[in-house]
Amino acid sequence: MIAQNGILEISADRLCGNVRAFRSHLPGQVLLGATVKANAYGHGLHNVVPLLPAAGISWLCVYSLEEAIAVAALNANLPILVLAPVVLTPESSDLPQHVMSVVASGRVRLTITDAQSASYLSSSLLGMGCAGPLAVHIQVDTGLTRQGVSLQELATLIQHVRALSAIRLEGIFMHFSHGDQPGHTANAMQLNEFIRAASGEKKNDPQLILHAHNSGGAWHDGVNALDMVRLGIGLYGLQPSLAAPVAAIAPIARLIAPITAVHSCAIGTGVGYGHTFITARISRVGVVPVGYADGYPRELSNRSFLLLGDKKLPVVGRVSMDQTLVDLTDSDGQVGDLVTMISDDPLSPISMDHLAEKCNTIGYELATRLGPRLERRVVDVLR
To answer: How far is it, in rounded angstroms, from Cα 354 to Cα 359?
Structure first.
């Protein structure tokens, strides 16, 4: 039976190659963290995380505690940093019970941005009898105006955290507001302010991990990479910015799918919802079982193509929730043939980054839209 779903092929070789590219570009002492939030940017936690220790990754970064639990279950045996800060209030002053055992395992590090939450966290850990202090990182807001303690309040928060017996300060980090724009004046200003605010603490505690750069910053400003970088989009071979590409990386995945039906259509046949495409000649129209529910954007209706080998198959009609229609008239495509919907060639017009550009968005969004119905399959090399 022909499967009614697409296949996301993930190259272990490409993933390792991307890590090697960053490793060779950065000072040797800089730790490599892999950001695997949002289901490894849509590529699949279960597929990506087990590959990372052998690739040279030292840390894993996720957004939420729930993601940390999922990653910890994969037994990658790497420290896991939860980037979203712990927010505890008098009305909600304890961590949920189902996450306490994972937190207490010592592999999970939590983020702190305020003194009250730090105090409640320490009390919760003492109450459950944790064997040792939990490592935490403090996030600083240097200009993104999102999460983080202000630069002016950092020293006070550090002093407060260091006074609590059940937690210990392991790292301090920030996020750039213009990290995808190398050379932007805000980057140097924010980094300088961050270093100035944290340098005294680093001098007193040389083991303290300072980290700021994402993929773009790590590549374009590696000389200032501090103690660790958090590789996100670049790990998956997608570009932080098409305006300033990292030439040494390549997409780790491609999306393929079978043709599940072929229709012979007379001139003037309407195709798909709303008949936004009407055949101007006797045509063969194929059905591919991937649609916008799987992450193939509706914005590509009548505007893109799929590949059968090297043959371009125009997308015709509206991309629907479950299916995409293609014009097979100038090809010999048949039921069961596999077509490429998203290419692993970074220069292809149907690469993730270039499709995102066509849809007026970014590769990050298209990658994280990749739906759960896609079969994710790790291969050595994409063919």
So the answer is: 9
Q: Is 92 exposed, middle or buried (0-12, 13-18, 19+ CB in 10 A)?
A: exposed
The fold of 12-236 is: TIM Barrel (3.20.20)
Q: Is 338 helix (H, G, I), strand (E, B) or coil?
A: strand
pLDDT at 156: 97
Give me the percent of the chain exceeding a pLDDT of 90: 88
Q: E strands, 42-141, where?
A: 59-62, 80-85, 108-112, 134-141
> Which of 141, 2, 126, 124 has the alpha carbon at shortest distance from 65?
124
Token pair for 112: 């702190």
Which DSSP symbol is given to 133?
P
What Å distances lie between residue 318 and 152, 228, 245, 296, 322, CA to CA?
A: 53, 45, 32, 11, 11
Handedness of CA 225, 226, 232, 237 (dihedral sign): positive
Contact, 52 vs 60, CB < 8 A?
yes
Q: Report pLDDT for 382.
A: 61
Which CATH topology does 253-379 take?
A: Lyase, Ornithine Decarboxylase; Chain A, domain 1 (2.40.37)
As a whole number of angstroms, the distance between CA 27 and CA 22 comes to 10
Q: Give the mean pLDDT of 161-185.
A: 94
pLDDT value of position 311: 97
Task: Give the position of tokens 């407060």.
Answer: 160
Mean pLDDT of 358-374: 97
- Mean pLDDT, rounded, of the chain: 94
C-alpha–C-alpha distance, residues 51 and 59, integer Å: 13
Q: Which amino acid is it at 65?
A: L
pTM: 0.94
Annotated active-site positions, please?
37, 273
Summarize the confidence of residues 270-290 as an average pLDDT: 98
Burial class (CB in 10 A: 0-12, 13-18, 19+), 260: middle
Q: Which has the closest alpha carbon to 112: 139, 142, 94? A: 139
Please provide the DSSP assignment of 247-274 as one string.
Answer: TT---SEEEEEE--EEEEE-TT-EESGG
Specify the pLDDT at position 112: 98
- The single-letter code of the amino acid at 211 is H
Domain chopping of the chain, boundaries: 12-236, 253-379
